Amino acid sequence: MVRAVVLNYNGDPHVYRCLDALAATDWPPGRLQVVVVDNSSTDGSPAAIAERHPDVELRSLPTNTGFPANNEALRDLDGVDYVALVNNDAFVTPGWLAPLVEELDGDRTLGAACPKLVFAPRFVELTIDSATFRPPADSRALGVRLSGVELDGTDRWRSAQFPPPGFWGIERGRGEEAAFCWTSGHAVLRVPLDPGTVPGGTVRLRLAADEPTEVALGCGPHHATIEVDRTPRWFELALDADAEPFDVVQNAGSMLLVGGYGADRGFLERDSGQYEEGEDVFAWCGGGVVFRPEYLRQVGLFDERFFAYYEDTDLAWRGRAQGWRYRYVPASVLRHQHATTSVEGSAVFNRYVERNRLMMLTKNAPAGMVAGAVGRYLLTTLSYARRDIAGPLRRRGRPRLGVVALRLRSFGSYLRWLPALLLDRRRLRAAAIVGDAELTAWIRDRR
């Protein structure tokens, strides 16, 4: 008996596709129980779920408690052999479950087994080439600002991909450039295709630059040379109809990076078969995983103070310290529509990511690692203050307070929780049977 838990918050229309896919799972009839935990949605999706899937158990919560609301369906596991989490914006393939259960059946030291998560759409690429400049108090080589992506008139900004080193990450701005990212000299943009569609059509990009800049766009045999200036404008390029769409990996198990950052193994890599071997991983991703109930009973559930981000890495670290292992199983595949509930790079995203990483480390990491992470956080905040506040003031410009204020609020929230976190730390270290040296051996470089 397997319970699949789907956490829903305003999941229309993605949650219906998720539940349709779960219903098509290749598994014995009556042995897959689907529970939807609704986080106080306001979009009508709970009523629609009840109508479309009357066989699904719907548990509605009075308030939105974030990702740890999954705990509502992880406490009562009597009679359940395994329990799975599936994001409401993910959809499983029919054979996703059997390989994960088989792995857990074969090794009782495994607390969890996790699938390969790939992004929901397939992609084609186009290039953006320009000269670069280095602004005052900023070490980056910047090309042009990209703030919009459309394919045949349909907005593709949220599902397009801006992989490094060609892009510098999404930033917040104003007006038409409320969200944008800088290119470097040569950038490769990934344009998402709807499932079942083939390449072709016309891409429109909204571009701007601090100074008039010549930009070369390219996609297969199609090329265009354009002039970009301070005013954001739309430019068109035909997509290569003969391009071969490709999948992109979101998560092939989770890892711990230098500095105490959690990360998706394989994130943004083209899926070229490089993750087709099963192996142990440091942690699992909460977007798709199958747990052994005994693991949860021993280690505990998600820390409800986290709300969003790092709660899965925290739980995985706690389990590792108590001797549990996790296995990545590539024969199981989930497709995930990334960041539909939360927006990567948004103020909410950055607030919780920054705060929760420090909370996770304070609970679980060696003392020197915690101190180093806190020190780097404060130094990074100071560098942003020099760039965004001191720099503009020296030039008699307008200071930009947003990033610094956000980081200070995050750190203030961390300090408010610090006494309770230190009590948790003492309890967890007393329960640990695996030493820091063995756990930190999992830390990897940022490559």
CATH-defined superfamily of the largest domain = Spore Coat Polysaccharide Biosynthesis Protein SpsA, Chain A
| Straight-line N-to-C gap | 40 Å
Mean pLDDT: 94
| Number of separate strands | 22
In the CATH scheme, the class of the largest domain would be: Alpha Beta
* Beta-strand proportion: 25-35%
Number of domains: 3
Q: If classified by CATH, what would the architecture of the largest domain be?
A: Alpha-Beta Complex
CATH topology of the largest domain: Spore Coat Polysaccharide Biosynthesis Protein SpsA, Chain A
Portion in helices: 25-40%
Q: C-alpha Rg, in Å?
A: 23 Å
Largest sheet: 10 strands, mixed
Structural class: alpha+beta
Summed up, the helix count is 9
As residue ranges, the low-confidence spans are none
Gross morphology: globular
